[in-house]
Amino acid sequence: MLKTLDNALDLLKHFTREKPQWGVRELAKEMNISHTVVYRMLATFERYGFVKQEPKTKKYELGFSFLEYASTVKDNLDITELIYPVMKRVAEATNESVFLTWLDGLEGICLEIAESRQQVKYAMSIGSRTLLYAGASNKVIMAYLPASTQSAIIEKGLRPRTEHTIHDKEKLLQDLARIREDGWAYSVGEYTDTVFGIAVPLFSGDRQVVASLTIAGPDYRMPEQKVPEALRELRTAQQEVQAILQRIF
Predict the structure, then answer these.
(1) 188 pairs with which residues across the strands?
(2) What is the pTM of this model?
(3) Which residue from 49, 61, 74, 243 puts its CA 20 to 30 A from 175's CA?
(4) Cα–Cα distance, 22 to 45 (Å, whole number)
(5) Which residues on adjacent β-strands are paired with residue 185?
(6) Separation between Cα atoms, residue 104 and residue 233, nearest integer Å
(7) Residue stretches of the chain with pLDDT short of 50
(8) DSSP state at residue 224
């Protein structure tokens, strides 16, 4: 019974922003289980509105039931209402978007966005899941995780997101050590081509990393000489958000 539940939840995690649709046999091959089992799980999820089948391609994608749960979760996350004004101030000061990325298992999840007023900006949706080994917002979290958790992330595979993604284990560990020593992370084009990220970690009251705060946008708007100024804004916000988190956790 627990194995069936594990498989069902693992199946849902395969529906991502990068791969929103799956065919039954394609998904069965990816999960290395019987296509009959995959079909039964999809049929059950479809009955409850968690997935739907696209009529033309016959492939499955996430259904509208998740919107109800997403809305419920966001309504209960009063923490984002407290943090958003701080993020908005940084977005206005830097003219770039600011993201709150939360640690969820071995992944990051975007909880809140304060968008830039610029016409050209880095677009990401609230609820998007991200790989912890690529990009400043993710690596600044991974850098503060226990070695055993870092190993678990690496063992899942370091698949390149772009040509700038570090997918060599030793180089990644060296980069994480440097980030931890510096206390912040900077990347260009690691998760999305031509996008920069400047990120700082956020901790719970017991000093466990729980999230990150990131300024991100097109790389041409953030030459190296502008990074220190943006980082100062982010550091100030980090202290304010940290105070909020320590009252809650």
Answers:
(1) 196
(2) 0.73
(3) 243
(4) 14
(5) 199
(6) 26
(7) none
(8) G
